[in-house]
């Protein structure tokens, strides 16, 4: 009996146990999922054409994702159980690689923090937008595998040894990750930044230089891919004919308007702004003020989503007042139209919110060795939303495009916890962990209810 208890205790305190729990919980969600939407389309792809013909046609007429799309075709054509198992592995890999990149001590504790923060991310809402299989493989998988391609940057920076077979893994991860446009931009930015830093330090790395060249070349490949142009023109003609005449500021205004309209109910923004507020209270007056304002902005964004766009709230309002939200706000007049006054009001508000978030990052980490990493992580999250305005499907893409921002928020939350947890009293530390646990459970239940809603 004692041997069994010791084994259970050893498993529970294993540093990777939190990731097993997270992957298992996400696998349980898959029990209520089934193929639909684009999953059904991808399932039929190889019925009347070869794989090579499909890739060629995709490149010429639809997309530069010539590596990701065949993977999606394969899993869509198999039983949903195979995808579920593979997806669970990805859900294990996501917190695992975040830990490998950003955690160096107190691993069991910090790994639980990663899991708590990721559980606040509404994965089920995002991954259900176009079909579970296709959306996950096009968004979640490149993000996760792309993070694997960023791990060698840390090893090179710290001058850790890299075995020959690791180079093969990192190179494969790089190629897969950069085949998705948003992840390609993030990886390229980090590779260029690290290359310039190491060149200044006179520490050249052949892998880093090669990866930077490949990332830049991939950007050129994306820009010249005929399929991307064909699809963009088709989307413009079908959904948004005026889009082709919009300027840069107008497109950025679309980014922020879509961010408010398409945002899904989530806790991660509220959690990280709340954590920043708690930690700012141990700093100077200016940092406290910026922390309060940033938290208020985060709260308002969440309330806007819950109140203005919630079907439940709309139904309650209709019963009490006899009116609908749409009687006051016509979302159709904000979507797929030339930006007007309301778009620019949203643009100013969201820009101020983003600037306060970045400013708070500088204030909190100004005396930390992690400052530039925190700035780059937060910047990557914000820019992943900004670039969406440069696509005619900025509204139609919906919730799934928030994935990169939300995961960057989770990483940012980890950096906050690592940096400032020692400054808190024992009681405050316990309250913080309990709060994170509460929001993690709430986030998971939200995903659970979303799966039930789609299954019914």
UniProtKB/TrEMBL annotation:
It comes from the Bacteria. Keywords: Membrane, Transmembrane, Transmembrane helix. It holds the Pfam family DUF6056. It comes from Acetobacterium bakii. This is Uncharacterized protein. The keyword Transmembrane helix applies. The chain crosses the membrane at residues 12-33, 66-94, 115-141, 167-194, 206-224, 252-277, 289-308, 341-365, 372-395, 401-420, 432-452. The keyword NAD does not apply.
């Amino acid at each position: 009996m004692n041997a069994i208890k010791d084994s259970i205790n050893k498993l529970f305190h294993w540093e990777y146990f939190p990731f097993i729990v997270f992957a298992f919980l996400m696998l349980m969600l898959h029990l209520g999922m089934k193929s639909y939407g684009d999953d059904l389309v991808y399932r039929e792809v190889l019925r009347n054409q070869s794989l090579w013909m499909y890739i060629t046609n995709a490149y010429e007429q639809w997309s530069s994702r010539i590596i990701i799309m065949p993977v999606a075709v394969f899993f869509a054509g198999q039983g949903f159980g195979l995808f579920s198992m593979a997806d669970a592995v990805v859900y294990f890999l996501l917190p695992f690689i975040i830990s490998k990149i950003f955690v160096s001590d107190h691993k069991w504790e910090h790994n639980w923090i990663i899991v708590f923060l990721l559980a606040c991310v509404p994965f089920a809402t995002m991954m259900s937008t176009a079909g579970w299989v296709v959306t996950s493989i096009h968004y979640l998988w490149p993000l996760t595998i792309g993070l694997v391609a960023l791990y060698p940057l840390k090893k090179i920076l710290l001058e850790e040894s890299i075995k020959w077979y690791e180079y093969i893994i990192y190179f494969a991860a790089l190629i897969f990750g950069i085949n998705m446009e948003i992840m390609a931009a993030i990886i390229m930015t980090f590779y260029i930044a690290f290359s310039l830093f190491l060149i200044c330090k006179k520490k050249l790395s052949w892998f880093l230089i090669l990866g930077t060249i490949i990332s830049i070349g991939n950007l050129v490949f994306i820009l010249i891919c005929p399929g991307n142009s064909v699809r963009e023109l088709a989307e413009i003609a079908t959904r948004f004919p005026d889009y082709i005449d919009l300027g840069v500021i107008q497109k950025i205004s679309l980014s922020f308007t879509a961010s408010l309209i398409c945002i899904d109910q989530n806790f991660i923004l509220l959690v990280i702004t709340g954590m920043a507020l708690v930690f700012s209270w141990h700093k100077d007056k200016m940092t406290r003020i910026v922390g309060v304002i940033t938290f208020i902005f985060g709260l308002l964004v969440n309330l806007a989503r819950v109140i203005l766009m919630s079907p439940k709230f709309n139904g309650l309002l209709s019963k009490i007042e006899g009116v609908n939200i749409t009687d006051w706000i016509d979302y159709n007049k904000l979507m797929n139209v030339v930006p007007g006054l309301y778009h620019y009001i949203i643009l100013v508000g969201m820009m101020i919110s983003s600037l306060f978030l970045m400013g708070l990052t500088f204030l909190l980490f100004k005396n930390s060795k992690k400052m530039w990493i925190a700035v780059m992580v937060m910047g990557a999250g914000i820019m992943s939303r900004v670039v969406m305005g440069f696509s005619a499907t900025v509204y139609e893409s919906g919730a799934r495009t928030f994935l990169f921002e939300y995961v960057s928020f989770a990483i940012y939350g980890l950096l906050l916890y690592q940096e400032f947890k020692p400054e808190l009293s024992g009681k405050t530390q316990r309250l913080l962990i309990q709060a994170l646990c509460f929001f993690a459970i709430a986030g998971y239940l939200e995903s659970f209810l979303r799966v039930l809603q789609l299954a019914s």
